[in-house]
Amino acid sequence: MIELLILILIAYVLGSIPTSIIVCKLKYNTDIREHGSGNAGATNVFRTFGWKPALFVTIIDVFKGWLPAYVAGHLHSDSMLFGSNPDALMIIAGFAAVLGHTYTIFAGFKGGKGVGTLAGMLIALFPIALPICLLVFIITLIITGMVSLGSMLAAIALPVTLFIIEGMIPDAQISLTLRIFALLIPLFIIFTHRSNIKRIMDGSENRFEKARIFRRKSGETKV
Question: Which residue among 47, 62, 197, 223 has the highest number of C-beta atoms inside a 10 angstrom radius?
Fold first, then answer.
């Protein structure tokens, strides 16, 4: 039990590293939460500062989710709780990192939406299904310009994709643990995007093509 708690704690602290806040503070000497949507995530970094810092933030956030899940799946510890179920360990460690990103201990428990970190976790858990989910995200983004809607639809596509893969590939072995977790992921993403859903319904949700890039000119801050 102690080993599992240590794993969860390490994964949570790793996920809690507020990448966007650190990057924007070091590079632009400002708090990303004071700009745009006020969210400490890669999407708000893009809208405020442009694609380069946003890409860096995304890569780190994805890594924060992938690393704990990958390591947990290769522990091979019979003494650890759930040690005989590597899928469960990967889910526990990965989701601890996602919760750390969403409720970071380093920023008053207010972080990002968790999509990037969750994507990293899913790379470790569902390497076959994730490209299809990514395709759903990209198509939705191109058609609607809404990152939030793309994230939610991509999450919903995951359990559907797993069902299709099992039906099309006879040798595909997807554990009950992973199937149950895949059904819970859309619920979490929808919950973290509940404010976005409200804006989508009233027509005020930010769109990708309307993103404005943060520039500092002559000592003035413009958004």
Answer: 47
Distance CA 156, CA 172 (A): 20
Which string of DSSP letters, residue by residue, matches 20-71?
Answer: HHHHHHHHHSS-GGGSTT---SHHHHHHHH-HHHHHHHHHHHHHHHHHHHHH
> What confidence tens digit (pLDDT) does each residue in 78-95 have?
767 666 888 999 999 999
Question: What is the band of 180 on the pLDDT scale with cuts at 50, 70, 90?
Answer: very high
Interaxial angle between packed helices 130-144 and 115-125, expressed in degrees from 0 to 180 and rounded to the nearest 10: 150
Spatial neighbors of 131 by CB under 8 A, at least 6 apart, are none
Residue 142 main-chain phi, psi, to 5 deg: -65, -40
Helix (H) or strand (E) holding 100: helix 86-102
CA atoms of 120 and 60, how far apart (whole Å): 9
Tokens at 189, concatenated: 């993403």
For 110-169, write each residue's pLDDT tens digit: 888 888 999 999 999 998 898 999 999 999 999 999 989 999 999 999 999 999 988 888
